[in-house]
C-alpha cells in the first residue's frame, strides 16, 4: 500500500491548488503518490521533501497574504462589489482610490470588517478592508492605497459577466470548415498551405454558405531545422510562424530588380516541387521562403510602409524584441538554448543586450517577418468577412509551448520547471499523455497581472473572428507530470479559473470575437455549466456523444452553445473512422491496453449503433457506400440545436488517414500529411474547389434551419 501524505503535506498541497486525490475516467478514486505531490510543489519553489519542511512551508504560506499590503491582482466581474484586504502597520490611517483605464480617479470607501491584528516578523500588522464599486467599467484599472507608512498599488481587472454572442449568431446558427491550414496546398503554394491559401479557401467556402474557417494553431516554430511539425508544440504562442507567408503578396516584391525577381521565381519553382511529395517538408519550404524574404526585406520600403512597421514594433514592445533576439541567437548558436553560455540564458542580461545590438539586422528581420505574417492573416480575415462570412477565421490556441522554445527563454520564471503538461489516462489514450510542455505557474501569472496571457490572446484575436482554446479545461486545472515520471503518475494543479476565463472573455468581447472551448476528456461536472454561463462555446464530437449504452445521443439533445462536428483532428477523417483506421493505427503502434479483438468489437458496436440511428431516421439506405455514410452523418449533425457546425476539409476531400495520433512522436507522421483523397494521394485546394464529393457534402449541411 502506498504511504499517504501527512496532514501538513496535504494541507500545503491544497493551498497551492495541488490535488492529492482525484476521480479517473472510469470513475475510480485515485490517491496521488507522495513523490508526485512533493515534485509538483518543488516546481512551485516549495520545499516539502520532509514532514518538517512541509510544516515550515505551510507556516510560511499562512503568512504570505499578511506580508503583502495588497493582493497581487484583483479580478472581478462587472457588477460585483468585492472586498479587498489591505495590510498596514497597526494604528495607521488608510486612504484608497481606483484609477480607471481611461484616467478617471474614484475614491473608495472602507467597510467595517474587524480582523485581529497579527505579529508579522516582529511588527504588529492590521487588516483594513476596502470595497470596490459595482459600476466599474470593463477593463484594466489600478487600485492605490496610502497610509503613513507608505503607498501600494495593484491591478483590478473587470471582466464581462458573460461574453456576448455576435448579432448574427443570436438570430441564427452557422456552419464552417475545420482544417489544418499547412495541409491545404494550392498550385501556388510553396509546399505548405499559407495565409493566401486560407483566403482562397475561405472566400470559396463563403460562396457555399459557410460562415467560418477554423484552422490549426499558427504559433511560431523554431527558426532552424528541424522545424517541429506539431502546431500544438510551438516555440511561442504569442507570435506566428512565418512559414505561412505568401511571398508573392508581400508589397515590397514589386520594388525588386529584374535579377532579384528571377531569383524569387527560382526559389518559388523549387518550393512548388514540394507540392508533389507524399509528406510535407516544412524545412525545405521555409528554406526557399526565407531566402526570398531576405531579399525583399533588404529592399527599400515606402514611408507609409516604414511607419506601419515601426508602429507594429512599438505596439509589440519588449516581447517582440525578446522573441526576435532569441531567433537571431538560435540561428547563430543553435538549440537547445540551455547549452548557451549562462549569461545568454537571461534575456535581461547585459550580454544579451550586446548580442541584440550585434545581431541588429537579423533581429529586425525577425520583427519584419512577424509584421508581414500577421498582416497577411489580418488581410485574410478581412477578405472572408467581405465575402459574407459571419465570423471569418477562427484561430486555435495551443495548451503550451516547447520546453526549449523562445517562450521558456523569455518568460522563464512564469513557467514551471521540472514538470510538464499532459493528460491522465482516458478511453482514447489509456496510458495517459505527456505533452512535454512546461505549464504556467499560477502564482507568477497573478504577480504579473496575467500580462503574458493577455498579450498572447490579443495577438490571436487581432487576426480573427474567434478563438478555439485547446483543452480549455487547462484554465481550471492542468495535469502536471514530474520529469522522469510516467504520464499516469501526475496530478492536477488548479488555476484561478475566474481570472483565466474572465480575462479571455474580456479580450474576446473587446475584439468582437467568439470563444470555443475544447472541453473533451475528463471534465468535472460543473465546468461545462460554468463555461456556458460565461458565454463560452463547448465542443461536441459525434463519436463521443453517447448515452449510457453505445447508443448515440439524439442530435436534438446537443448543447446549444456549442461547436458540433462529426470528427476532430485527433481522430481520422470520417471515412477513415468508419473503416476502423483509428483502431488499426493504434494497434500497429502498440497503444492499446486491450486486445485488438476487444477494441474492434467495442468500436464496431459503437459505430453500428450510430449507423443504425441513421437508418431509423431515414438518412441511410441499405447497401450505402462509405461516402453515403459520411454525408448522412453530417446531415444528422444539422439536426442539433448547436449554434456552430464544423465540417472537416479532409471529409470534403474523402481523406481516410489520421492527421495526428496522440501518444506518438516519430512512430507516425503526425502533422505531416497533406490533404488527400480516398486513395491517399494528395489533393490540392484547386481540385477540392471543383470536387463533386465536396459540393455534395456541403449541400447537405447548408440545409440548416434557423434557431
From TrEMBL:
Catalytic activity: Transfers a segment of a (1->4)-alpha-D-glucan to a new position in an acceptor, which may be glucose or a (1->4)-alpha-D-glucan
Protein name, UniProt field: 4-alpha-glucanotransferase
GO biological process, one term: carbohydrate metabolic process
GO molecular function: 4-alpha-glucanotransferase activity
Keyword Transferase assigned: yes
One Pfam family here: Glyco_hydro_77
InterPro entries referenced in this protein's UniProt entry, alphabetically: GH, Glyco_hydro_77, MalQ_N
NCBIfam families: malQ
Broad EC category: transferase
Known EC number: 2.4.1.25
UniProt record similarity statement: Belongs to the disproportionating enzyme family.
Organism annotation: Rudaeicoccus suwonensis
Entry keyword set: Carbohydrate metabolism, Glycosyltransferase, Transferase
